[in-house]
Amino acid sequence: MEVRAGETISHYRVLEKLGEGGMGVVFKAEDTRLRRLVALKFLSGKTAPDAKATARLLREAQAGGSLDHPNICRVHGLEEHEGRVFIVMAFVEGESLDRRIRAGLRLGEALDIGIQIGEGLKAAHERGIVHRDIKPANVLITQDGVATITDFGLALVRDRSRLTMPGTVMGTMTTMAPEQLRAEDADARTDVWALGVVLYEMCTGRLPFAHRDAVRLMRAILEEGPPSPTAIRPSLPSDLDEIVGKALAKAREDRYQRVDGLVADLRVLRRRLTAGQEALACAPEPSPTLDPEAPTASHAARSWLGRVFGRG
Questions:
Q1: Domain range holding 98?
Q2: C-beta of residue 107 within 8 angstroms of C-beta of residue 277
Q3: Boundary residue ending a domain (90, 115, 147)
Q4: I need a labelling partner for 260 at 20 to 30 A (CA). Which of 6, 17, 75, 304 fits?
């Protein structure tokens, strides 16, 4: 059943739609009992409310609800009203990181945001939770510059049963790590890769791997090295090349083994910035978007991997 602005669900008055993805739609709402603003996430109208979709929503609520960190969106609970199951979350007043990137960040801001995302991921990893879908659209930035990770819908939770079949490709293709494209199990280093992609885009204004065609994009992620950040913007500090290069190592054993190692290096770089470097504008450049007629990630991955590795 479709949710509409203006209706009341349980004791929540729906105010406006905030966004929608492949699996969920999020609304701003007023909690009429506690007199506070909240965000409500429902299963998307594009997703049939079957047992697996509901189980994934429950998994997301459990993953987010087990975390209490300033850089992770707080989950208040999972509720049901007249057959509608939804997550109740804190309402974060701000804008998505992808919008901030399009508006243009300063280098100091980009590093501050990267550090905060890393701190949030560290808290998740310590609880055995791998996000698996870190991307600018899943990070909100408040007016005070606080970065908040959202959407644990694809999270992998330690000691919990799988919700996807082995060999299933899950995530957003532009930020997928090589092991995700090969349909291997994700771990904390998978989130390190995604944060490396986000850092690269924030600092250079472009994605490290960008193709309209899904198969070409996967080939680049699996086989090609992106230009170094300083090759794109020579005014960037050379230390950034080493940090991003290590985060984007194809082999997991060559990456930062823990996200706190990446955060530590970012903190050192941030402290070393001159005033001129801190104010350096990271203006965005147009990046190609995936062709809407291109195969889905899962289909493209199976086709590509079948040709390369001889498996379907």
A1: 94-309
A2: yes
A3: 90
A4: 75
Cα 305 to Cα 299: distance, rounded to the nearest angstrom: 10
| CA distance readout (Å), 108 to 14, 112, 113, 147 | 37, 6, 9, 14
- Model pLDDT for residues 250-264, shown as the tens digit of each residue: 999 999 999 999 999
User: Rounded to an integer, what distance in angstroms lies between the CA atom of residue 234 and that of residue 184?
Assistant: 36
pLDDT in tens, 81-116: 988 899 999 999 999 999 999 999 999 999 999 999
The pTM score is: 0.87
Q: Which residues pair with 20 in a beta bridge?
A: 25
Looking at the structure, tell me whether residues 85 and 110 fall in a common domain: no
Helix or strand run (H / E) with residue 16: strand 12-20
Are residues 50 and 101 located together in one domain of the fold? no
133 catalytic? Reply is yes
C-alpha–C-alpha distance, residues 177 and 130, integer Å: 13
Residue 193: its H or E element: helix 188-204
- The number of domains in the chain is 2
Residue 260: Cβ-neighbour burial (10 angstroms; 0-12, 13-18, 19+): middle
CB 79 within 8 A of CB 254: no
List, as one string, the DSSP characters of 205-236: SS-SS--SSHHHHHHHHHH-PPPPHHHH-TTS
Torsion of CA 98, 100, 106, 108, to 10 degrees: -70
